[in-house]
Design brief:
17 helices; Rossmann fold; 22 strands; 6-stranded mixed beta sheet; globular
């Protein structure tokens, strides 16, 4: 681990508070970042950690408190002020234009002209910027092609572009907001190597996350925010996952899933030689066969991009089935529409809650009834019974512990964990026979993960069949009763979870079968 190289913090926050209508997002927060260190900012979704860093980056302005850069108080009113003070931020949802090249994205708002000051009329000097980008990327171990179109890059490569963009604009302090949320394990390790390289060269990094294992691996210091307040700072030497989880949530958290032995019953979902194509007519699901039974969780393990997304879309009616059979309780649903599959008793927790799970401008209450609004008792003919829906929404918000100022709050303003609870509440507040849960805890904090896991286990124990698709191997190992490993569109093995070990499943995920 690197150690701070100066006693004067490169960044210091003193008594920073931020209020939104009905919410105190940050409450007199103190925070320090030393030069050359990785300081993790840990907390549940909605705890206030991203809001705090958005203040540092100038997207919000604090209502109270002060910001100091290298011991000098600064006023940061917008991101340009932040950049002038050497602060860059890589957001969880990347701020890139897909149809432009890497170089063009880096030039946006910071155009370099041939022999002229920035902002002057003239010819854009792409070659000069491209050479600078290549030099900067090589210096920090960030392998990117300046001429590549962003839309052709992997998620990990796009993240590197965002980091280079911040460095190109002079950042000495890098704020990384949930940078590992969408990365594969291999990409996470590559990112950590980049972070270590940057701090060795004098950069300072704030690592916003909720993943306990990662902060213990990479951070020099760890500060925890809970309910908008800074509740403590620790180092990896004097903390463990249990202690950090307790600081985050304010109570003891069970980090391992406690479940009874499965009691599987009859087949609920049966796939036979299922074939699904992508947009280029390539078979991304290639003759897949398996069953999911009452009272069991079948986990589909695999590195993201091996056909899991298309498999789920085919089962839930969102993608065309090109070949084979999909049977749900004796009904052929190979060509059924999503509403029909839902009405047959399927709950769907989609992998992308923002794109496929919620209507973000709509209030929480409306999102809780997206698949049942037209049914009794919520609809009388063509007229919605708003009083009935309001009463049911209040019950669901309470039962599923959805943290929202009110049921009329736009669901897009909630934290990721609470957005996911809205989806789970909608899907599980009706009788279901099958739950299709795709990446159900992606981007969630430890408290929300515990909650979602418990709900899936409760459903399984009530006799519901659960198809769990996750790229998180720990999640698959803990929740599943059987594990189907998917590689390049095929199921290459189905294992009894009680007899499986992490090493063997990991090898299968990489396409390696034991001799």
């Amino acid at each position: 681990m690197t150690k701070p190289k100066t006693n004067i913090p490169v960044l210091r926050l003193s008594g920073v508070s931020k209020r939104f209508p009905g919410v105190l997002a940050n409450d007199k927060v103190d925070f320090e970042l030393a030069k050359g260190e990785i300081h993790a900012l840990l907390g549940e979704n909605g705890a206030g950690k991203t809001t705090l860093m958005n203040i540092v980056y100038g997207l919000y302005q604090q209502d109270e408190g002060q910001i100091f850069i290298n011991g000098k108080e600064v006023i940061i009113q917008d991101p340009n002020d932040a950049l002038e003070n050497g602060i860059g931020m890589v957001h969880q949802h990347f701020m890139l234009v897909p149809v432009m090249t890497v170089t063009e994205n880096l030039m946006l708002g910071h155009e370099a002209l041939q022999g002229l000051p920035i902002g002057s009329l003239g010819q854009l000097d792409k070659e000069k910027v491209s050479a600078e980008v290549k030099k900067l990327a090589d210096k920090h171990g960030l392998s990117i092609d300046p001429a590549a179109l962003v839309e052709d890059l992997s998620v990990g490569e796009r993240q590197r572009v965002e980091i280079v963009k911040a460095l190109y604009r002079g950042a000495e302090v890098l704020i990384l907001d949930e940078p590992t949320a969408v990365l594969t394990p291999q990409e996470v390790e590559e990112l950590f190597e980049v972070m270590r390289s940057l701090t060795k060269q004098g950069k300072s990094i704030i690592f916003i996350t909720h993943k306990l294992g990662e902060v213990l691996d990479i951070a020099d210091r760890i500060s925890v925010i809970r309910d908008g307040k800074a509740v403590g700072t620790a180092t990896p030497k004097d903390a463990d996952q249990r202690k950090l989880a307790s600081m985050m949530v304010g109570r003891d958290v069970i980090l391992r899933v406690d479940k009874k032995p499965a009691k599987p019953g009859k087949d609920v979902l049966k796939l036979k030689n299922l074939v699904v194509m992508d947009e280029t007519e390539k078979a991304v699901v290639n003759k897949v066969s398996f069953t999911v039974r009452e009272g069991e969780i079948l986990g589909v393990a695999g590195v993201q991009g091996n056909g899991q997304t298309e498999l789920v879309e085919a089962v839930t009616g969102l993608r065309e089935v090109y070949g084979g059979e999909v049977d749900l309780l004796g009904h052929d649903i190979s060509s059924a529409r999503p509403r029909k599959i839902t009405e047959l008793g399927t709950a769907h927790i989609p992998e992308d809650r923002l794109k496929d799970g919620l209507v973000l401008p709509f209030p929480v209450s409306d999102n809780l009834f997206l698949n049942t609004y037209y049914t009794d008792p919520y609809s009388k003919g063509t007229v919605l019974d708003e009083s009935e829906m309001a009463e049911a929404a209040a019950d669901r918000i309470d039962a599923f512990d959805i943290r929202t100022p009110s049921s009329s709050t736009s669901v897009g303003t909630l934290s990721g964990g609470n957005q996911q609870k809205v989806i789970v509440a909608r899907e599980l507040s009706r009788p279901v026979k099958l739950i299709v849960a795709a990446q159900p805890t992606r981007g969630l904090d430890v408290g929300s993960i515990e909650y979602i896991h418990n709900r899936l286990i409760e459903s399984r124990d009530k006799g519901v069949a659960v198809l769990l698709v996750s790229s998180e191997l720990d999640e698959i190992m803990q929740l599943s009763d059987r594990i189907a490993v998917m590689y390049r569109g095929k199921i290459i093995n189905i294992l009894d979870a009680k007899k499986a070990n992490k090493e063997d499943v990991g090898l299968l995920m990489a396409g390696v079968k034991k001799a």
